[in-house]
TrEMBL record:
A single cellular component GO annotation: cytosol
Xref: NCBIfam families: PA_CoA_Oxy1 (TIGR02156)
Molecular function GO labels: phenylacetyl-CoA 1,2-epoxidase activity
Organism: Roseibium marinum
Protein name, entry field: Ring-1,2-phenylacetyl-CoA epoxidase subunit PaaA
């Protein structure tokens, strides 16, 4: 279905012989492993792809606060509440680093947010699923942050300097997030039969949406080839999905939980697990805005933006006053 939307010609990676001198020099810098900085010359497609990917990534961080923020007031202990609060605040920070990285490419944060609110820019599909129980907060940390790290560690080596540097700090924090999620899962899975059941139920509901985080299968991925040749992406979607499954299945076994996949089987030859693909029609429905929480998430972001207007107005008024006072003093 989606393959029909893939314009293979437009997405074909051009051979070096088809490039202008400037483009060739740029590609050679990338191939040598040099970082591209905001003031360097870059092809328009490179700039646009980065704005799309970094912008979507930033949006994912701030929309990702919502399903977890939902549980701050209901965390089971003071300690858990403080940890969750810190994690949710970290996500806001990640959003800020990423919006700043995108701004170096000539787009403003306001423009990106406007596009998000108008439904013209995506955020990660995973955040359109609800967090129904406390065990879901464990599953989000363990699986969602686990998938995020798998995707983001290689992005520390991405070719665009500001993005790669933002990734270094984000990955450090994500690793704490993943561990706090696994810690919740250990408590729940090793707790009462009811807590164990909740942990299993959370795994059942978050497993396939987590696999979807890596994007469509390689044969349906529109951007991978060009993004990988520009080193905006380092691995394909399927490579990272496989690594995630290989890393996570033993963790589920350690927890005494069952991955909800009858086809899951160790494959000695490929030195990895065989596993079932997610339901891709569900993935594309979520991308189209028809997931369980798409409307709720976007409404919450828009409301937060509107409710915060007075803060932005106040800051702008203060900045204007300071400029007037400074100019008068000079
Ligand atoms: N959800 O050609 P493809 C976090 C879109 S934050 C929605 O493979 P690409 C966290 C894709 O955009 C995690 N859309 O694309 C935060 C494209 O559509 P457009 C966020 C998806 O870009 C808070 C189309 O499908 N991480 O972990 O080469 C709390 C075709 O796909 C998704 C990042 O953003 C999806 N899952 O590869 C806790 C990492 N997948 O744009 C945790 C940076 C695909 O043409 N991003 N699409 O309309 C990437 O690495 C890449 O953009 C992706 C997709 C691997 C996600």
């Amino acid at each position: 279905m989606y393959a029909q939307m893939v314009n293979t010609d437009a997405n074909r990676v051009r051979d070096i012989s088809e490039m202008s001198e400037e483009e060739r020099a740029f590609q050679e810098r990338i191939d040598r492993g040099e970082k591209i900085e905001p003031t360097d010359w870059m092809p328009e497609g490179y700039r646009k792809t980065l704005i799309r990917q970094i912008g979507q990534h930033a949006h994912s961080e701030i929309v990702g606060q919502l399903p977890e923020g939902n549980w701050i007031t209901r965390a089971p202990t003071l300690e858990r509440k403080v940890i969750l609060l810190a994690k949710v605040q970290d996500e806001a920070g990640h959003g800020l680093y990423l919006y700043c990285a995108a701004e170096t490419l000539g787009v403003s944060r306001d423009e990106l947010i406007e596009l998000l609110h108008a439904g013209k820019m995506k955020y990660s599909s995973i955040f359109n699923y609800p967090t129904l129980t406390w065990a879901d907060i464990g599953a989000v940390g363990w699986l969602v942050d686990g998938a995020a790290i798998m995707n983001q560690v290689p992005l520390q080596r991405t070719s665009f300097g500001p993005y790669s540097r933002a990734m270094v700090r984000i990955c450090k924090e994500e690793s704490f997030h993943q561990r706090q999620g696994f810690d919740i899962m250990m408590k729940m899975a090793g707790g009462t039969p009811e807590q164990h059941r909740m942990a299993q139920d959370a795994l059942n509901r978050f497993w396939y949406p987590s696999l979807m985080m890596f994007g469509p299968s390689d044969k349906e991925s529109v951007h991978s080839a060009q993004s990988m040749s520009w080193k905006i992406k380092i691995n394909t979607n399927d490579e990272l999905r496989q690594k995630f499954v290989d890393q996570t299945v033993p963790q589920a076994e350690y927890l005494g939980l069952t991955v909800p996949d009858d086809q899951l089987k160790w494959n000695q030859e490929k030195n990895g697990y065989d596993f079932s693909e997610p339901d891709w029609s569900e993935f594309f429905e979520v991308l189209k805005g028809n997931g369980p929480c798409n409307k709720e998430r976007l409404d919450a972001r828009i409301k937060a933006w509107e409710d915060g207007a007075w803060v932005r107005d106040g800051l702008m008024a203060h900045a204007d006053k300071s400029t007037v006072a400074r100019t008068a003093a000079e």
